[in-house]
Design brief:
The protein is mainly α and 364 residues long. Helix content is 48%, strand content 9%. It is built from 16 helices and six strands. The strands form two sheets. It has a three-stranded antiparallel sheet. The chain has a three-stranded antiparallel sheet with strand order 4-5-6, with no helix packed on it.
Length: 364
C-alpha cells in the first residue's frame, strides 16, 4: 500500500512549483527509475486515464523474459574475448563445430540446455560422427566449452550437458622413430622431406612450430647455436640447442631465405603438407604400418628428439617443459627410445640415470 492510501500501490509523487505559484504533480513507481507515467495539477488523480497509465507502467516495469536463440548466443561467444584468446587453429576448429551446432539447433532457445532431457538431443546429433571417435568426442568438447561460457556470462543458469562419455582413446607414447627408420626415409626422399624429418627429430618441436622457423630465431651461444621459439600450444619461450644434424640443415639453408623449411616449390610449408609428405615417403621407403606394426607419424619424432636433447645436455625438467610433458613421461619416452636403439642403449640409459639422479637431488 502506498504511503498515502489515496494513491495506487507503489506510486511515488513529486511536486513542482510553477512560475504562477501553482503546483504540478509528477507520478512514477516507487524505487523504479525512469517509470514516470503521469503529470498533472491534481494531487490525487483518479481518472480512468491515470489508472490505465499506472497499470501500463506497472506491467512495463516487470522483468522481461528475453528468449535468445542458440544462434544468437553462439555469435556472442565467437565475438567474446574468451574466444579471441584461443590459438588460430583452435578458433578454426571451434568455428567449424559451432557452425554445425547452429545448423542443427540455431533457432531453438538457449535455455533448452538447462533441461537434462536436452542431452538426448545432443547425443542424437553427435551420432553423425560416430564412425570417427575423435570427431564424436570433439563435438562434445566444443559444445561443452560453449555452454559453460554461456553459464558464466548469464545466458544459462546451468549446463545440463556437462558430462559426456568419450570414446576416443589413443596412446602413442610408445611409438618412436628409430635411427635406422629415419635414415631409411632420408636416404630415399626428396631433400625438403628429409629436412622436415630431421628438424622434427632433432628439435622436438610440434609441426605448427617448426614450419615457421626463421633465421631470426637462430641465436649464437658461447658453445654453438640455439633455436629460440615461442610455442603455439603453451605460448612460452623455448630454447633448443642446435644439434650437429640440425646444424647441417641450417648450414644448407640459403641465408637470404626467411623460412628455414619450405615445400618442394620453395614456398611456405603447411602442417598438412609436412605430415603428408613424410607419410608418403615413409610408405615409399617400406615403412608402412603393415610392415612396421605401427603407424609412424611426423609428430612421433618428438620422442626421438627428447633423447637428442638429453644428449645435448638438457635436464629432464627442461625437456619436459619444452615438450609439454611430465617428468615421468619425458623419462619414459627416452627409455623407450633406448629399447628400439640397441647400439645406443647403454649410453642413453646412462645419461637418463644421471638425469634422474640429478633431478632427485635437486628436490632434496
Amino acid at each position: 500500500m502506498a504511503k498515502n492510501s489515496r494513491l495506487p500501490e507503489g506510486v511515488h509523487r513529486t511536486r513542482a512549483r510553477l512560475a504562477d505559484g501553482s503546483s504540478k504533480y509528477y507520478f512514477s513507481l516507487r524505487g523504479c527509475k525512469g517509470t514516470g507515467f503521469w503529470s498533472g495539477r491534481e494531487r490525487f488523480p483518479r481518472s480512468p486515464e491515470f489508472l490505465s497509465a499506472y497499470v501500463r507502467a506497472f506491467e512495463d516495469s516487470k522483468p522481461k523474459i528475453v528468449l535468445q536463440s542458440n544462434a544468437d548466443v553462439v555469435a556472442e561467444y565467437l565475438s567474446s574475448p574468451k574466444f579471441r584468446k584461443l590459438k588460430p587453429r583452435t578458433q578454426s576448429d571451434y568455428r567449424r563445430w559451432l557452425d554445425r551446432f547452429v545448423e542443427e539447433f540455431g533457432p531453438d532457445d538457449i535455455s533448452m540446455w538447462e533441461d537434462s532431457a536436452s542431452k538426448r538431443d545432443l547425443n542424437k546429433w553427435r551420432k553423425q560422427w560416430e564412425h570417427s571417435p575423435k570427431q564424436y568426442d570433439y563435438s562434445a568438447t566444443v559444445v561443452r566449452v560453449f555452454l559453460n561460457w554461456s553459464v558464466d556470462n548469464g545466458f544459462l543458469v546451468t549446463n545440463a550437458c556437462q558430462n559426456f562419455e568419450l570414446f576416443y582413446e589413443v596412446d602413442r607414447s610408445g611409438i618412436i622413430w628409430s635411427p635406422d627408420q629415419i635414415q631409411q626415409v632420408v636416404g630415399q626422399c626428396p631433400e625438403w622431406i628429409a629436412r622436415v624429418l630431421i628438424t622434427a627429430t632433432e628439435t622436438g618441436l610440434r609441426i605448427g612450430d617448426f614450419i615457421k622457423l626463421t633465421w631470426n630465431q637462430i641465436e649464437t651461444t658461447p658453445e654453438g647455436r640455439r633455436i629460440r621459439v615461442k610455442t603455439n600450444k603453451r605460448g612460452i619461450p623455448a630454447y633448443i640447442p642446435v644439434t650437429p644434424k640440425m646444424a647441417e640443415v641450417l648450414d644448407q639453408t640459403p641465408k637470404d631465405r626467411l623460412l628455414i623449411l619450405t615445400n618442394a616449390s620453395g614456398g611456405r610449408l603447411t602442417e598438412h603438407r609436412a605430415s603428408e609428405g613424410v607419410r608418403q615417403w615413409r610408405d615409399k621407403s617400406g615403412l608402412t604400418p603393415e610392415v612396421v606394426g605401427k603407424d609412424l607419424r611426423l609428430n612421433d619424432a618428438r620422442g626421438t628428439a627428447a633423447t637428442w636433447l638429453l644428449r645435448a645436455g638438457l635436464s629432464l625438467a627442461q625437456i619436459a617443459a619444452h615438450m609439454g610433458w611430465s617428468l615421468r613421461t619425458a623419462a619414459d619416452m627416452i627409455e623407450r627410445y633406448a629399447e628400439v636403439s640397441p647400439d645406443e642403449t647403454d649410453d642413453v640409459l646412462r645419461l637418463l640415470k644421471n638425469a634422474k639422479r640429478t633431478q632427485k637431488e635437486q628436490k632434496l
